[in-house]
Specification:
- With 38 residues, this protein is an all-alpha fold.
- It has one domain (6-37).
- The protein contains 1 helix and no strands.
- It has one helix at 6-17.
- The longest helix is centred in the first third of the chain and has 12 residues, at 6-17.
- It is flat, with a radius of gyration of 12 Å.
- It starts with 5 loop residues before the first helix and ends in a 21-residue tail after the last helix.
Length: 38
């Protein structure tokens, strides 16, 4: 187990800023490395 790094979450930000995410509205994108499943 480790703390997340900027390299871990930056792909999510890039995706959300891209045209690929144009159909996503009102969602919470949890980028926690699976920690929330514990």
């Amino acid at each position: 187990k480790r703390f997340g790094k900027s390299e871990d979450i930056s792909p999510a930000f890039v995706f959300l800023a891209s045209a690929d995410s144009d159909y996503i509205t009102g969602q919470v994108l949890c980028v926690d490395g699976g920690y929330g499943m514990i």
